[in-house]
Amino acid sequence: MSDIELESALLKNGFNDKNIKDLQKIINRSEGRETLSTLLVDLKRRFYAGCLMLIIILMPLACKITFDISGSLTAYLIAFVFGFYCVYQIVPLVLAWKAYRFLSKRG
């Protein structure tokens, strides 16, 4: 499947023009080492990694709430928000989610 066909398939499956432009920027930065299809596979892997990181970040907060561990709940919330922000900056979660959904539908 060519990049043009893949772009039209992406537009039909939840991606918008801004998302396609963001993907093209990433491909242009890689200086030809990456194609649209390889980028989608990479984003799918990043989605799994991002979810794992969010679960790891959420665990201390969940333990605090469940087992009433000593310490300030506010500190746990601040740490969670900061951790979520860092993961969101490292892993483009919106693009990764859309790539995951697209590739899962394709099989």
Descriptive overview:
With 107 residues, this protein is an all-alpha fold. The protein is 81% helix and 0% strand. The protein is built from 5 helices and no strands. It has helices at residues 3-12, 17-29, 36-67, 73-90, 93-106.
Mean pLDDT: 93
| Low-confidence residue ranges | none
**Morphology call:** elongated
Helix content: over 70%
Report the count of strand segments.
0
Structural class: mainly alpha
Q: End-to-end distance, in Å?
A: 15 Å
Radius of gyration: 18 Å
Quaternary organization: single chain
**How many structural units, i.e. domains?**
1
Number of helices: 5
Order of helices and strands: HHHHH
Which range does the strand content fall in? under 5%
Largest sheet composition: none
Present the secondary structure layout.
Layout lengths: L2 H10 L4 H13 L6 H32 L5 H18 L2 H14 L1
Helix pairs in contact: 3-4, 3-5
Task: Sum this structure up briefly.
The protein is mainly α and 107 residues long. It has helices at 3-12, 17-29, 36-67, 73-90, 93-106.
Entry keywords:
single chain; mainly alpha; 107 residues
